Structure formats: C-alpha cells, structure tokens
Amino acid sequence: PPGTLQGAHERHSVILRDIEFGITRIYDQRVMLSAYTLLFFMPIHFHMFGERNQKGSPEILVLGDSRQGKTTAANKLMQHFGAGAMIDAEGATYVGLVGGRNEYGSAGKVFAWGALPMNNGGMVFLDEIDGLVEDGIFGKLTSIRSSGIAQRSTAGGNRRTSAALRMIMASNPVGSRRLAQYDSLMYAVRELIKKPADLARFELIVGVYKITAPNFDYSTEEIDYTQEVAQEHLRWAWQQEPALDKAESQLAADRAKWLCAKYENMPTLEPTEARWKVGRMACAMAALAFSRGPDG
Question: What is the pLDDT of residues 175-188, one digit of tens each?
Fold first, then answer.
C-alpha cells in the first residue's frame, strides 16, 4: 500500500527487478545495483531535527573482483537516468579532478575547474580509485568529500567553488586478489584505504564477489521503469531538499544508535555522524519509492 514501509519495499523491489533484468543485465549482484540506485537518489542537502546537513557529497565505495559488472552497471544506469559522468581515475591528476592551471595553446596557462566541481549537483562514477590512493590524490579530496567545496590556491589568490555531488568510487582489491580470499570485506577495504577518517566519509561500502553461476535471464519482457519514467523521476528527486520531521528524525537517530552498538568500531559508523547517514538513506529510499498516478 502507498505511504507504508511495505509499499516502499515493494516499489523498490519492482524498480530493482527492472534494473537487474531489463536495464543493466548484471545478474545476481542486487546489493551493488541497490547501492548504485540509492546513490542516484541520495539528497545532497536535507534536514534532520530542523538542522541542515553539513556533509555535502554522498558517496559509496564499491570494492570487488574484476569483470563483475561494477563499471558496466554504472554506465548503463547513467544512460538510463540520463545523468552522471564516468571518470577513469587511473592516471587522473589532481588538476584534472579539482582544478588548476593548464596550458591552452596561444592563451598560455589558464585556470580551469576540474571534473568534480564541473559536476556540482550531479553524480560521478570514479573508476579504479586505487591509483588515486597510491598517488596521494585521494587524501587531497577531503574538502570536496566533507563540505562539498573545491579549493585551490593560485598566484591570483585562493579560489573556491561548490563541488557538492554524488560519488560512486570503485576499485579492485589491492594486488588483484580475489575478495573471497579475505576473511572480511573490511580487511580488503583497509588494505586499500588506510586512514579511518577517509573511510568514515562513505555512506556505504559494498563488496562485489565473483558469481560463479549467475542466473541469466534473456527474456525480452517490457520493463515498467522506462527511460522516460526514470529520467522524470530523477529530475524530480534532484529538485528536492527533504526535511525529516521530529518523529522521523528520532527514528533515524535510534536506528543509527542501534547500528553503532551492533557493529562496534565499524569505520563507516562513527556515533557522532551515523544518524546523518541513516537520515540521508531514508530520504533516498523515500524518493526512490515515490510514485504518482496518471492524474498527477
């Protein structure tokens, strides 16, 4: 029924079924597809207990075995939603991502903002971020990740611009090891990103394990969540700045407290910040489950 938890779950299941079998054709990786879809619908700004969130850039880390559809799924979803930018982080530079002075022929060196601020308010998929980590670039993205602001100091003075955006960051395990070789996903994650503060900023961390016998379904059944519907849905969602009322805010805070107690010392569940992550995902789920009839 509309307006209920069961109704939201059913709506999410219907959309996810279409995404798996009709849009991406990436099978038996529903956790990854669900995380991607939620990220598309996460608000950049929202309110809890009457206060606006401080962290402007929602982001998820997707770590997993190669050739399991991490990049393909993201590409197909961006095409379906008509939004998002693919950035190959392998070989990317800080200037290219954030901004700086570049040589432009006869014009000489000209300052230009990079790919992240250029996608302010939108969404990017950063592929193969292990190179950014190794080169020390990942650690320099703190300002964008925490406050949604890009900053550069140049000869002409300090420059600042908004760079609040949704980010999916993907990588294989370090050394091309299989994810199943680790006792826990978090062992693989900590091998890639060592600073707890860098891990704490992710809303979600998803492990993508190799599927040995995927449930292929090449049926040509028409999907309900068409490109036209999906793009209108996302445009509406990105125009919102949701506000949880007092009861909803308290429920999100209570669930965050429960999660912190259940998963003690989990780097993504800092007790001081967890309520904001739960609140943001609640807003994303509400936006994803939103629908309307032909009469509007």
Answer: 878 999 999 999 99
CA–CA distance, 151 with 195 (Å, rounded to integer): 22
Closest CA to 224 of 42, 32, 80, 36: 80
DSSP letter string over 201-239?
Answer: T-SEEEEEPPPSS-------PPPSS-HHHHHHHHHHHHT
**Collapsed DSSP state (helix, strand, coil) of residue 250:** helix
Phi, psi of 256 (to 5 degrees): -65, -40
- Judged against a pLDDT cut of 90, whether residue 154 lies above it is answered with no
Contact assessment for residue 209 and residue 65, using Cβ atoms and an 8 Å cutoff: yes
Q: Are strands 51-52 and 47-48 parallel, antiparallel or unpaired?
A: antiparallel
Q: Please report, to the nearest 10 degrees, the dihedral formed by the alpha carbons of residues 265, 34, 145, 194 taken in order.
A: 40
